[in-house]
Design a protein that fits this description.
elongated; transport; mainly alpha; two-stranded antiparallel ribbon; Vps35; Vacuolar protein sorting-associated protein 35; membrane; single chain; 4 strands
Length: about 850
């Protein structure tokens, strides 16, 4: 018949009261009978674990404690001998009450002076085997453990039990409790399995407490005894139990209870034991527990090389035992060991681990899953090592010194490489230029070989990889810190040739940064020449170096041209012009001329797309206007003549007209604005009077450009576009009059008169006389177009606006009459103050 928990507690309290009353009357036998009745409630399987524990504590407090006190007092007062009582309780009928009473009486008997303490304790531990039910057996052994522990650690019992017996008894209790604990999970029906697992977790401390007791017995200074008598038994029990929950928990307690010195002294044995665990046990979590324990105590105790050697052998054996061990388990294990044994100065210790992982990956016959790829990519970054304070220096040192790290990295797929390279380069680019220098070409070649697979697998459709490669070039160039210019030139040449030989598609990314670095070297050479201007040998040396660098720039630009890509061609054209400007600022007219010619040849050979030609010519014109060193040997004349010829060959008439009238500025230079170098930096600067003497003043060519531009503008069928171009040409003419700085204007007033007359005739052809009372919108201050009766159509004709026609008047072309009106007003104002404008007829 089932009894409720409340009824059980009531009955136990009744039995305990009767027990205490009988003890007061010295009726021990009857008191023991009532104790048996109370203990019998612990035989039931009807209680939940927490209820069973409450009953256990109640009996221990209300029955066992009064009984123990009475037995000690009765023996000391010679009412009875505990040996007789010990024999008497062995006749109790039920096993569980008998064993509980034996523990109570036996521990009281063992505490007296003349008792055979060691034999009694051995007898109690052995007799507890009689209960094999998990819950009942574990609580019985826990009670036994609590009662015999004072005989092992209390100084008043010193000498009664030798240390070997203490450990043997505790270890025996530990083994039996572990077996009972594991058995709990598999008792009863399958549907009760989940509850049993939860119960196991709740009472696991009972098993762990036995290891705590062992540590309390042997202390922290008995290493030899620990190695010979404790570790073998504990590890053997952990292995033989072959239970996932038990092995995980016991290793956790094992590492936490015993000091670090004990673990380091028995490291090989502990690691060997982990090779024989259940296949579902996460070995890397077990090792992490050990690593965390060691690192939290005192890392200085570790002999790093020996530590690495032991773990290297262990990981090798682990891989041999289970070659298909998942990277999700193997790599965290590696990281745990590396985190403890490696710092910035001990990079060489990593090589063994990289070699091991590389070998494992080559022997792996199955495909990686996504999680493994992600884990491997994060491991290769090596940015989670706590002892590394400066990650940037550390990772560069690893790349330079660890052969197996480079091998491991280059063997990975492009996705893993791209991820790892991105993170590494992101860190490296954040450091200062002098923080991680590349000191010689040997280091550069090692770094280049490390990143070779990344370049070989380059795909322009892969934006992340492309971004990585750009970062790589910039980091390498920024890290070059060699003393001489020639050494820098050599390293840049190695870098450029390496990229070109591995993957031609990457040239357009690498060469831009390389050319920029060349420019920096040119400026450096000039700065050194200025610093040692009185030393002819130094000036000659760096002058030769400057010319050599310009040759390398020309070759690099030519490499880009060979790619025959429209966008890259425009970039190449602009690079030529920038380099020409740089050479001109150094007064190297011949070199500047060569780069201008190289840019012009791109136009003449139709390498620049037609859509980009106009913009490229405008940039060329602007660059030529800033030159100072080309006014010798007709170099400037040759360049501007070819530029004007290119402008006149543009296909679109509107672009041709504008390009040609812009070329007129090249034939009539005003105050020349160029560039110069001051303390190694290029700044804007104005030319001297000597430079002005070399400037270009050719009236005939200016007029030819303006007349050619006007003819082209007049031939355009779109009247409004033609009208607009004519106004722009008029502005150019006024510029030449107003900006001559004392020189006679290359544009005579008669030419301007004719141009104004032609513009007025065009207005007449559009029927835009003021007498028509028609308004044209050209500025925001004009009345809205919707209020007008007429608008101008695309062909320039004047037509009435019908509101019923579904046409948006705002989308129709507006005649820029106000533009011309403002120019006329401007001329009228200047005529009153400047005699040069008075001859112009409006």
């Amino acid at each position: 018949m089932e009894v409720s928990m409340d009824e059980t507690i009531t009955l136990i309290r009744q039995e305990s009261i009767l027990l205490q009353r009988l003890l007061e009357r010295d009726n021990l036998i009857q008191a023991i009978n009532h104790a048996v009745k109370a203990i019998s409630f612990l035989r039931s399987d009807d209680y939940k674990l927490n209820e069973y524990y409450e009953i256990y504590l109640l009996i221990q407090d209300r029955c066992f404690k009064p009984l123990s006190d009475y037995l000690i007092k009765g023996h000391t007062s010679n009412k009875f001998h505990l040996n007789d009582v010990y024999d008497t309780v062995q006749y109790v009928g039920n096993v569980l009450p008998r064993l509980y009473l034996l523990v109570v009486v036996g521990t009281c008997y063992a505490s007296i002076d003349d008792a055979p303490t060691s034999e009694i304790l051995k007898d109690l531990v052995e007799m507890c085997r009689g209960v094999q039910s998990s819950i009942r057996g574990m609580f019985l052994r826990q009670y036994l453990s609590d009662n015999i522990l004072p005989f092992f650690i209390d100084s008043k019992y010193s000498g009664r039990v030798d240390q070997l017996t203490k450990c043997q008894l505790t270890l025996e209790n530990f083994k039996e409790m572990n077996k009972l604990w594991i058995r709990l999970q598999y008792q009863g029906f399958l549907k009760e399995r989940i509850q049993h697992v939860e119960d196991r977790i709740d009472i696991k401390i009972m098993v762990g407490s036995q290891l705590i007791n062992i540590h309390r017995i042997i202390g922290d200074s008995n290493l030899q005894f620990y190695k010979e008598k404790v570790v073998p038994v504990v590890l053997q029990q952990i292995i033989q139990c072959n239970d996932v929950l038990s092995q995980n928990y016991l290793f956790d307690v094992f590492f936490q209870v015993f000091p670090v010195g004990y673990h380091l002294a028995t490291l090989k044995s502990v690691l060997e034991a982990t090779l024989h665990l259940h296949h579902e046990v996460s070995i890397h979590e077990i090792i992490n527990l050990l690593i965390n324990k060691v690192s939290s105590d005192n890392v200085d105790k570790i002999d790093s090389l020996e530590f690495v050697e032991v773990f290297s052998d262990y990981l090798y054996n682990l891989n041999q035992k289970d070659p298909q061990l998942s990277l999700l388990q193997f790599i965290p294990l590696l990281e745990s060991v590396i985190n403890l044994s490696v710092n910035e100065e001990k990079v060489i210790a990593l090589d063994q681990f990289f070699e091991l992982l590389s070998t494992k990956l080559k022997n792996k016959h199955t495909e990686y899953i996504n999680e493994e790829n992600e884990t491997l990519a994060k491991f290769l970054i090596l940015n989670r090592i706590p002892n590394v304070q400066n990650y940037k220096k550390f990772i560069v040192k690893v790349i330079l010194e660890s052969k197996w790290y480079r091998t491991l990295f280059t063997d990975q797929i492009s996705g893993i490489q791209a991820f790892s390279v991105n993170v590494i380069l992101q860190e490296l680019l954040s450091c200062s230029k002098s923080e991680i220098p590349i000191k010689n070409k040997e280091e550069l070649q090692v770094i280049l070989s490390f990143f070779s697979p990344t370049i070989e697998n380059y795909d322009s459709r892969h934006p992340i990889l492309q971004e990585n490669l750009v970062k790589l070039v910039h980091w390498i160039l920024n890290s070059m810190k060699l003393k001489t210019v020639n050494d820098n030139i050599e390293l840049i040449s190695i870098l450029k040739n390496w990229y070109s030989n591995i993957n031609v598609d990457f040239i357009h990314i690498s060469h831009l940064a390389i050319i920029t670095k060349y420019w920096e070297l040119v400026k450096k050479c000039k700065m050194i020449q200025n610093k040692y201007c009185k030393n002819e040998s130094v000036k000659k040396q760096y002058g030769d170096s400057t010319r050599q660098v310009f040759k390398l720039i020309s070759r690099a630009i030519q490499d880009l041209v060979y790619l025959n890509n429209e966008q890259i061609m425009t970039t190449s054209h602009n690079l030529c012009l920038e380099t020409a400007t740089l050479a001109d600022s150094l007064s190297l007219g011949d070199i500047s001329y060569d780069f201008f010619v190289q840019a012009i040849e791109m136009h003449e050979e139709n390498k620049i797309s037609s859509s980009q030609k106009y913009t490229a010519i405008v940039v060329l014109i602007q660059t030529l206007q800033r030159t100072n060193s080309l006014f010798v040997e007709n170099k400037y004349n040759d360049l501007i003549f070819r530029c004007t010829t290119m402008a006149s060959r543009l296909l679109k008439k509107k672009e041709q007209a504008r390009a040609v009238y812009l070329c007129s500025h090249l034939w009539w230079t005003t105050k020349t604005v160029g560039m110069k170098i001051v303390q190694g930096e290029i700044v804007d600067g104005n030319t001297s009077s000597n430079d002005m003497a070399k400037s270009m003043r050719d009236r005939k060519r200016v007029l030819e450009c303006l007349q050619r531009s006007l003819r082209v503008a007049d031939s355009i069928l779109d009247n409004i576009t033609s009208y607009q171009l004519m106004i722009e040409i008029l502005e150019i003419c006024l510029f030449f009059i107003n900006g001559t700085d004392g020189w006679d204007s290359p544009v005579p007033a008669t030419y301007i008169d004719g141009l104004i007359k032609l513009i007025n005739n065009n207005l007449k052809s559009l029927k835009l006389e003021e007498s028509t009372n028609l308004k044209f919108t050209g500025e925001s201050d004009e009345e809205p177009l919707e209020k007008e009766e007429f608008v101008a159509t695309q062909d320039g004709r004047y037509t009435s606006f019908d509101a019923s026609i579904p046409i948006d008047p705002n989308k129709m072309t507006r005649v820029p009459i106000n533009h011309f009106t403002r120019i006329n007003d401007y001329i009228k104002r200047l005529q009153s103050v400047d005699a040069r404008f008075k001859s112009i007829k409006l």
